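Example record for the data management plan.
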Amino acid sequence: MLRSRLFRPALVVTAVLALLGFGITPSNAATPITVSTAIGRQDGSTASVTGYVVGQPTATNTVVRSNFPNDFALALADSATQTSTSSMLYVQIPTAFRASYGLQSNPGLIGQQITVTGTLTAYFTHAGLKDPTAFSGGGSSDPGDPGDYYAGAEGKTGAALKAALHTIISSQTKLTYDQVWTALKDTDQDPANSNNVIEIYSGRSISKSANGSAADDWNREHVWAKSHGDFGTATGPGTDVHHLRPEDVSVNAARGNLDFDNGGTAVAQCSGCTADSDSFAPRPAVRGDIARMIFYMAVRYEGDDGFANLEVNNSVNNGSAPYIGRLSVLKAWAAADPPDAFEQRRNEVIYTTYQHNRNPFIDHPEWITSIWP
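Corresponding structural encoding:
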């Protein structure tokens, strides 16, 4: 069942501030104004401004839409697709509101409409709204409840849930195989070093520029092996970033098109990984990530778009059939390794910047056992 969106932590904060005398705005702030009006009225007056969250300002002429450095500011516009900073209002976020409206903590706010009450004055030497006393709107700050994205799946279980999710996540922007390089440098960026990406199986941090086919380069690993359904690198499943990850060239080759299962012997250059003749197991820290990518693919590609109907089974040695296993092991991996901040951020970046669809099993891990009991 989806989490209710009627409860807003930010509204509680607003109510408390009002009781303390900080949330009561003068009459000229009672009726919200547009962002364009607010930009033209930088006179130090108090106003409530309604607009769409379009990013985080980091300099006078710079607004980022991912890799948010902190929870201190956001940018509003009259259109959710606005990219010109001259048409944006830079909003300061006081400490009391950062947990609910800061973009590092709540990247799902991108594209959502909110109303903020504060002082119309320059921020970052740019048209701004400072010292806000109230925020409202924007949906839940829960990363597993991104607005109304999953409304069509509410109340469903089993096959009906799978069908509803297929419809929802099939609405996406498709990338070319070349565009995948650019996407992976963003989606898999090392949180400790913005010049690097993290390889999915090995866990190694490696320079973003070291992508290629030479020894010790990183390349584009298809977690759902592309021969399992024979989709190659065609635009569609072959370029879907939800299951494409950076990996060392030799480790990628060692995995090959093996199914996933426990057991085997150590894999060179991949600490914690094991493999045998018919299966591969990544390091424990990402086994749940692998499982959720596989479950995403099995829901996204149902044979209705010119590609094979991809399914998870409880076998190994699936070869070129459009199946991957082992289902029982993948379910156990997902349960033992729940979504972490890296995986959640990755899902959000794919959604907001690249494909504009989500992996539902990162947002709602409980749906795995509903579809595959």
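Summary line stored alongside the record: Residues 287-300 form the longest helix (14 residues).
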